[in-house]
């Protein structure tokens, strides 16, 4: 199967609507067949009827300063049945066992939908939440600000669709299709007013760099460009843990590092062989990148005086399908990776080592976005659903599946619910943006009943209802049999009486009148008139 880059997802398909259209990534060889993907190590949801074959031969990944390519996780080494996504993730249904949510009753909602924000302007590509404010970016070139489910303000980028939004104090960074990063500032006097503060790189930086020929690098065959500029769409933005650096990923196969205080580009890294779809900065200076070339790489930030450099320390994944999304939990102990085959891999970090923890299967189509909060991780997919997973030790449990979007779920944002819970439950407000031009708001609980228990309870209820139905059917059958036996006895009795009357030469009526009756017989009419005769 061809690997698909996220840049190949374009709006306005043949139907004239907003349906995604996929184009084969010509940079990948077309002769390679897709390797079978392994089964879950720890976290395949139990309700899936697929075989839970376990491969314990997962080597520890060394994340020391030296590059350890032998520690690369190769899906072809895993045993068992592969991922049910062997065709293009945009137009196929699972030929193997269905995903767990396929048998889930959508009417049973454990995590509630709070509201929906709809603007018929464009498809939603990016989200960012801060407090009670939500920022949305779309292909209408607009960035809109929402407060309490109502439009609060907005500003226009004038540069194509907004593919990434990230907030840093009073600054707002937006990544665009034209390869530029724009910086906005919130007015201290009026929070609804946003002013353009600049562009990365600035015109002055471009002018200064263009003077030196050494600042030009080859970006394509017979084409050069300044190393501080992205030459293709900016696909993702991420802030370092200390809020000092901004990382930008691009379809030009590079990631660039920017200093927040002076907006200078301090480093450009040729990270992958294809479009970089995601970048995530984590604790201790670690940076994760995922690409359409099917790889996930780990980079380490090293500061030597005034010089900051990033070196490749580990390659976590190497597969045929594109890596589409990355997410890291708050402590940096778990890293999640979503792919175009609908699979979510995760790695666990202990003692500065990353080891593959397992696979989460919950989607039929490509995973387009991931978000982690607390012990929860959410995955949004092209199948229009959002899976909510809870991590308990080494086990991930699918708590629920959020349905309601009529298009692929493109982006997610999570904020902690500030309203206190009666039972001490940790709740989160989840925002999901979709290509159906809407944003939905959900309230997600980490203590919600898991999907396994819900399905088991539903199965028990179905079995109980089936047993009651069978019992009622048996009772009705027995009653009908008794009535039939009584009717047969009456028919036989009347038949024998007719034979007896025929032998005696009397009519059945005469024989009935001549038959002696008991005084207790309710059909004895003489009992009714006896007292009258006694007079």
Average the pLDDT over all residues and give the rounded result.
76
CATH superfamily of the largest domain: YVTN repeat-like/Quinoprotein amine dehydrogenase
Report the CATH topology name of the largest domain: Methylamine Dehydrogenase, Chain H
Tell me, what is the CATH class of the largest domain?
Mainly Beta
Gross morphology:
elongated
Number of E strands: 31
- The amount of beta strand, in percent, is 35-45%
Number of helices: 4
What are the segments in which pLDDT stays under 50 over at least 5 consecutive residues? Answer: 1-109, 525-535
Q: How is this structure best described in words?
A:
It is built from four helices and 31 strands. The protein has 535 residues and is mainly beta. The protein folds into two domains: 8-41 and 67-449, YVTN repeat-like/Quinoprotein amine dehydrogenase (Methylamine Dehydrogenase, Chain H); 451-515. A five-stranded antiparallel β-sheet has the order 1-24-23-22-21, with no helix packed on it. A hairpin with a 5-residue loop joins strand 21 and strand 22 (334-339). Pfam families: WD40 (PF00400). Residues 514-535 are annotated as: Disordered. Keywords: Repeat, WD repeat. WD repeats lie at residues 227-268, 269-300, 316-348, 360-389.
